Structures
1.
Amino acid sequence: MKTIRKRVFGLGHVLTIALVILLAGCELGVKNEPQPSNEAIPISRAKEVGGLGGGGSSSLVIPVGSNVTGYVNLYNGLYGTTLFYLQTGNYTSSGSLTASGVTITRHGNSTPKINGYFDIHGNNVTISHLTWDGTNWTGHSSVMSPPNRNLILIRGQNVTIEHNKLKNITTLESYTLIRAGGKEYNGYQAFNVSNLKIQYNEIDNWKQPVGSSNQIGAIFLGHFNIDVPEAVGAQIRYNIITDGPDTWPVGGCACGNTAITVADGLPPFPTATYIPTANQAVNIEGNEIDGGLDAFSIKVNNATIKNNIVTNSTSGSSPGIQNRIGSNNIFDGNMVSGASDGAGIMIWAGNNLTFRNNIIRDSEHGILFRSESSGPAGDHILINNNTFVGNIDNVVFYNSQGAAYAHDDVVFINNIFYKDSISSSPSFKNYPGAPSFSIWSSISYMGYNLFANGFSAPSGGTCHSCPAPASTVQIFDNIAANNFDIETGSSPAVNAGTNWSNGMPSIDFEKKVRPVGPYDIGAIEKNGY
């Protein structure tokens, strides 16, 4: 019996010692857990750095103060981790994010702040609910030095950037906050960026230093140097972009100081030898842009720009929306106001362009057609069912070489041209100081437009069925309150338009369906449903 007891007691000791060793080993494993680096460690090397840990985990909370890129690359490579949470506090981020199939987001309602950049090379990546705040950074040099020049650079497929905040950022060099595609200083390399979503982000107080020759952009898709179809099918939706750069770069142009740019090549202006060929099919929708220089600069084909609100584009002859180069683009249901030193819409080059259901108000020019001797102007342009109100000039043609480079086959149908104070200013004219030519050499048809408060149809041609009511006639419900619904019954715009053209919009600015019969003139259909 004693012998048996000794054997049991001895077995207990053995089990206890084994348990202690096991726990110690586990604790030791935690203490010696592999540390993240800027490069992913392949699965083939897993045993060298500690093993896969029995299958790994699908989520991980990254400790405050860590290099986010390094952690994501490491744990995705080792354990297949796909969901990474960040807590309230400051994080760094640098190096290429090579992991695929990952989401990087906040933990609960925490407020993680990033001092660094994401250079995304992986596919199926989501970055959400993070904050970049320039007032929180320890120094700009580590964040803004080449070759990065972007806070978020996207070079993968199926990437979503959403619900992030980027604010209080003053650049020390030409810079972009969110960019998709190749980099012009990286050997002109192109990347296959597709199915991209940039949505519900807030960008505020983004500047270049006063007196700087550099430029800053909020969102940039595409490539400066080569004509390639990057960012095909991208969605740029419901972002709020405020307080952008309000001065031109010294010795430069404002073409880079733009809230949203979609481009596929150089130069910034059309030339006789360069017209973009890439079919981007980009959708830019529901964004709100307030302050700064250019709001939208479109340099691709088959883009849709709709339901955006642009206010207070105030400096440097800057347009709210411009089609710089590109064809088959549709601008629908946008409101632009306060382009006090520029144009609500600027049209450079491109064929088969449609501008419909837009409200352009309180700007220097409603539409500015611009062309240079270096390249072609636009052709086949339909301007229909828009409301122009309170602009100093409604339609202006600027051609540096006169009629030789004028736009061609421009059609105006169902538009309201209204001055909110009685004026005898012409609605259509040549740009002061530019070569003068007959604007009817550009206009192929004008009909069913309403000219009010002293505005009148351009002379030298025929405006078919264009009412010109007396200044006492009320056009809108309440223009003082910026209500541009047309007055019921008494407005001469009611049922005075046409719906004969294939390009006429079936819905109006307020997304109401227009009736089968004659349309109302302007962006808003009174009897829509």
2.
Amino acid sequence: MSSGFIGIIYNALSALLLVLLVGLLLTVLVMFVVDITQSRNAVRRNYPVIGRFRAMFEHLGTFFRQYFFAMDREEMPFNRAFRDWVYRAAKNQDSTIPFGSTRDVSPIGSISFVNCPYPTLEVDAAPTQAMIIGPDCPNPFEAGSLFNISGMSYGALSKVAVQALSHGASKAACWMNTGEGGLSPHHLSGGCDIVMQIGTAKYGVRDEAGNLSDEKLRELAAIEQVRMFEIKLSQGAKPGKGGILPGLKVTSEIAAIRGIPEGEDSISPNRHVEIDSPGELLDMIARIRAVTGKPVGFKLVLGGCNALDALFDEIKRRGDHSAPDFITLDSADGGSGAAPQPLMDFMGMTLKESLPMLIDHLVGYGLRDRVRVICSGKLITPSGVAWALCMGADFIVSARGFMFALGCIQAMQCHQNTCPTGITTHQKRLQRGLDPQDKAVRVWHYVENMRHDVGVIAHSCGVKHPRQLQRRHARVVIQDGSSAGLHMIYPETEVGFPHGKNQNQQASTTEDTESTEETQSRSHK
């Protein structure tokens, strides 16, 4: 009986295997005929069937390189060492490392900090002071956190990701920027401070004709959580190109918030139609500030200093009261969920060049105390944040750093709606992997550990809190392999010299300083 049953199973399996083999051969035959007759792909036409593996290997290679082949400091846009620091910080794990650093400190442009022989003791350390943005506004914003969440719209991010960021920002007492997709209930769900970004399509603040609506602005300004308004002129990943949200990510809820058709690509104009000059930009700032009573600034990527000269000249002509309350400076190596590669790779200036340019122009035009500077662009670790503070930034914001805190694995699927961690997808099946409550705690820990480690750098430099960091506290490797202080490469300027002082003026200042010191020394003796 048992032997007969075994025989039946054996015959059935044999028949099944035969069917599978025949099916496989027929499939290969069909693929062979299709490949050899099609004319769109040369590799498949010349190497039928086998040529199909090329695309599969290219796709899988992205993941194999990350896990098996790339070194800790090799990957782009963020290497494993940077990502691991964020992961550990978000999980509140030990951030110490053994044996020695894997960082190569010799390449040109490498940053190091100037340690003080007498570092600040913990008992002498001071908390970072809050800074007021828009002090002359009816409703100024007292911002306590120097590290905050950059613009990421609901649409580019999933509902659960936005909820996690909102709750985490509330726990960490930092602000959250809405991105250009408008204000959603998910941004407000955690009770955090909100910066409402106004993109070129004006999602969330436009009327039926697509124009800026004062009524919508008033409605948003009436929400206590909405602290500031940011006019987006350009973004690091795509200067000169409006926001892009593929239609497969435009759900019914997102379409309703933005006021666009469901399932269609959401492509914002290249610029605000009302803004084509410095004067028109200042007019827009003044209008929004008058309607909302809250601080208003703008976000841009610099391509050179001419734009700053033109803007600041117009501000001085009108009066300092016309200046923006803040400027958010994005870096050319910033990120995006979707952007044309020519713009992402080649357009705009990186923060290393543009941030000192902006700071010096503000100082030179006498506007530094009037305008707060917020910067962004791959600043996801304490060293990057500390460098920006040394350069003169008031606040630092990050987008991709917080994505890593949520669990992003840099799968590079943001624009495909197939994010495996549920952060940038609207597929319910994939969103199940992201628990907003758990990830909110990670966002909180990321901010707290960032503040702590930036403080560690500041105290090692001999200052009491991070806002006291200056250019003399950091050095950079130059052409001959040696390092020079940032204050030597980017000398401090003063009112009247937005482009810095020439060598004669610097020498004169140095002589005056030395003469004063000598006089004081003689007087003391």
3.
Amino acid sequence: MNKELEVLMDILFLAAQGWLFYRLMIQVLGIQSSNWEKWRAYIMLAAPFGIYRMLIMYAEPVRKLIYGPETLIRNSRDTIGGVLLGCLILLVSGLCYSPKRGTEVTYLTLMYTAVCEILRFGVFCLTYLFPNLLFALLNRLLEQQEIGEKQYMFWAGIIQDGWQWLFFTMYLVCVFLTLRECVKYLVRAGRKPKGSELFYLMIPVAVSFGLGILLRSMWVFVLDDQMHLIFDNTPFLYVMIPGIAFCSVLLVVSGIRMRCRLIEEEEERFHHQVYQSQLEDMERYLRDLEGMQEGLKGMRHDMKNYAADIHALIRLMQTKRQKHVKEESIEGLPVGTEESIGGLPVGTEESIQKELIGYLGSMEHALDQFQVHEYTGNTVTDVIIHRFRQQAKSEGIRLECRFCFPQSLEIHPFDISIILNNAWNNAMEACKKLPVKERMVSLKGVQREGIFFLEMRNSIKRGSVKWEGSFPVSEKLQKEEHGLGLKNIARCVKKYGGYLECREEAGSFLLTILLQSSYPQ
């Protein structure tokens, strides 16, 4: 292969490697940009490493700096420093491109380097059998004088060039397939790795990286002034090294896949808890309606008795009036004589009127217990706010409510009920920890054009809220219920492309929610 073609092949190989690193970063970090920004990102991520590798291969001053005055690699251990420096250059490039996600960039860079390093040796062993067999055949033909030296050199060059293209192609394909699997499960996980997750993900990466460095330290060595490969005298390494390499890569992919599966199982458990919570909200709503219905049935059943009692009181008052008329027209009858009419005691007209008014008042009070006095614009939220008032009264909580259902927005009442019930439960738990005179909850819900604004504020003890990021940490004993209320709220907010904020200010906890119109996902 002439010099120009060799340089071109190295440039294409490094460009492909840079594209693999660029693709890994872009897909996992989820960076979306224009075509110009993508080219800029590719240059930023791939160019430094490519330039560094070209300088090592073709710049004499750089080779002298790394490999010594002779600029020859007489032992593969001499290349370990170059590999580590290349990894550092990739890491710096990644951090410059995404400085706010340093942990993820570091993991992705180390994973990429480890996969490339270990697969290089595995693919080399598999493809090296091809030129060895052909060279053995070529040597045999030369010994039998079936070909001349010029033909030998011609075919030897073709075999060497063909092997290099085969090696580079198989190597890039293996790296591409491995990174594709890693990207698939990293993206499917849906969130960046936490501390413990990152630790377990780094174990197979560290093992693969260490094995790659170990193989590199033994790959080429000098014996009797001749360079030898590690498997020259141990043919079984042709199979053993690829096996180790692909098992190491499988560990890396399996670790990422296992994390993804665990996150998906956690999400399934969370969704199960969400649906269970929604079912409880629905059951609570149905119980409220059922209680009102049963109360109204009881009142309807007793209406006959109520009507008979009222009729008896009215008859009593009419009889008393007639008696007074008779007393004025008939002499000798003592005034004020008490009689019994229809088995009912006779009292003064004034006392009967008071008794009748009190009876009607008692009926009105009994009916009020089964009447919802909330008018929010929706039956579901009417019942929910009515229950809030009853609970607040029984717990000694001062409730200030100004809530209007967004009728013109396409927001399902059930989603509003999930938000209200979970926010109210959290506010109730916080208020119960305070003296009765300090308990306060304020609820506001108003619509502004295509936005529904919801705010719930409740009193808390100053400094009692512990935070994890932008959300408070639950103090419930059951770990599976930690933060479930806010997660339910966040799920509904995300469904409508909304905004959720929690903050503590002036001895109160403030929950602010914005929901958009016609944005259900």
